Amino acid sequence: MTAGGPGGRVSGAGLGSLRRIVTTEPSRPSGERCEMCATEIPAEHRHVVDLDSRNILCACTGCSLLFTRSTAATRYRTVPDRYLSLDDSAVGSAVWDELQIPVNLAFFFTDSRTGRTTAFYPGPAGATESELSTGAWDSLVARSARLATPLPDVEAIMMRVHGDGTPAECYLVPIDSAYELVGRLRRVWRGFDGGREAKAELSQYFARLRARSRSTRGRSDGESVATPAVPGGAG
Predict the structure, then answer these.
(1) Which residue among 2, 156, 205, 215 has its CA within the 20 to 30 Å range from the CA of 121?
(2) Same domain, yes or no, for 66 and 172?
(3) For the whole model, what pTM was predicted?
(4) What is the pLDDT of residues 185-194, one digit of tens each?
C-alpha cells in the first residue's frame, strides 16, 4: 500500500512532516524528579537511603515522610536535616592515630543491619573505606558518649584533626552532607594532598557547618536539633 499524492508519491508537505517527526527529539522533563514517584522536585529536597543498595535517593516531601521512623520495617530511611557541633568530644591527634586513618579528615556511620561502624575519607577516587581496628570506635565512644548520637544509616560523625594539639572539629551531619563533601572534593582534587582548591572547598564546608550547627556542650542527651540543610546538597 502506498501513501501520498497521485501515483503513490509523497507530497512535499508530507515529506516536511516526516522530516520533523524523524529529527525532533522527544521532550524531556525539566528539573529534578523524585526517584520514588517521579514527581518534579525543587533543587533543595530531601533524600532517602536505600538500605539494600546503600544508594541515596532524591525524594519529594510526600515520599520522604513515609520513611522518617527508624523503626519502620522497610528498606528505606529518610535522611534527617539536623547538624550538631560535638565540640566537647575530646578527640585529639593521639586518639586519631588509634583509628589508623591515613588522612586528617573522615566521616563515620553505623550500618543498622550489621551494627558495624565504618570510616570513610575523601580522595581523588571519591570516598575510600577505612577498616577500623577491632574495638577502636567503641573505645572512642566510651571516652565521649556523644559520638554515639547519630542515627544509624542516615547520619554521620564528621571529624577533622589539625595535628597541632587542638581537639578535632567534630560534627554530627546528615549522611548526604558527608557524601556531598566527598563529591565536591573529588571534582577539584589535584596531586597527593588535594591541592589549593580542595583545601579551600574543605574550609568553606566546615565554615558552613560551624554556622549551621547547634552546640551540644553542657547537654546530657545529645538533643536532636533540626537545622537548615547545608546548601548544595547531593541532588
Answers:
(1) 215
(2) no
(3) 0.76
(4) 999 988 877 8
